[in-house]
């Protein structure tokens, strides 16, 4: 059985992961409106990955006999002052999520809950990738995004992103 505190943190994280998907789809909506289909595509795939994270945590709880209860998914901001704003917001959001995942890992460690620690090792590593991916994109945008040809090329590059199913097996 999972400790109540650990189960609650993971349960709350399920809602946060669905919120992440919702937020990234909102970024995609913005970029579609701006005519940047590559940026939109990149965030649509990101949203799919967030949904995967939510579903993996949901399954993990269910495999441990925890009743999952969904929370309310907040409304995304919807106002972005320029093309860079969603990228900056995405990086800040991933840093926030890393903190949440670390909190779960820390709580599992306090409880000597080795099963949850083993499972969340994957999410700890995944957060490293998530921060790097969006951080790299922000750097590229700062380098090339203010030049129309550079922005066009970057948009084309982002169109090539391919969805990959999560490697974590529960
Ligand atoms: Fe589910 Fe982007 O972390």
UniProtKB/TrEMBL annotation:
The keyword Cytoplasm applies. Keywords: Cytoplasm, Iron, Iron storage, Metal-binding, Oxidoreductase. Residues 1-145 form the Ferritin-like diiron domain. Its main location: cytoplasm. Fe cation binds at residues 17, 50, 53, 94, 127. One of its GO terms (molecular function) is ferrous iron binding. Its EC number is 1.16.3.2. It holds the Pfam family Ferritin. It catalyses: 4 Fe(2+) + O2 + 6 H2O = 4 iron(III) oxide-hydroxide + 12 H(+). InterPro entries: Ferritin (IPR001519), Ferritin-like (IPR012347), Ferritin-like_diiron (IPR009040), Ferritin-like_SF (IPR009078), Ferritin_DPS_dom (IPR008331), Ferritin_prok (IPR041719). It is found in: Cytoplasm. GO terms for biological process: intracellular iron ion homeostasis; iron ion transport. GO terms for cellular component: cytosol. Belongs to the ferritin family. Prokaryotic subfamily. Iron-storage protein. This is Ferritin. It comes from Megasphaera hexanoica.
């Amino acid at each position: 059985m999972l400790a109540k505190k650990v189960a609650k943190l993971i349960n709350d994280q399920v809602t946060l992961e669905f919120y992440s998907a919702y937020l990234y789809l909102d970024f995609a909506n913005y970029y579609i409106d701006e005519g940047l289909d590559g940026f939109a595509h990149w965030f649509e795939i990101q949203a799919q990955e967030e949904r995967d994270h939510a579903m993996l945590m949901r399954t993990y709880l269910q495999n441990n006999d925890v009743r999952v209860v969904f929370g309310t998914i907040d409304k995304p901001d919807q106002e972005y002052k320029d093309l860079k704003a969603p990228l900056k917001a995405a990086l800040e959001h991933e840093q926030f999520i890393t903190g949440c995942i670390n909190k779960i890992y820390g709580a599992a460690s306090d409880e000597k809950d080795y099963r949850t620690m083993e499972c969340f090792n994957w999410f700890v590593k995944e957060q490293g990738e998530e921060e790097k991916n969006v951080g790299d994109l922000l750097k590229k945008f700062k380098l090339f995004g203010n030049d129309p040809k550079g922005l066009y090329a970057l948009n084309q590059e982002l169109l090539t992103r391919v969805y990959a199913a999560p490697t974590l097996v529960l």
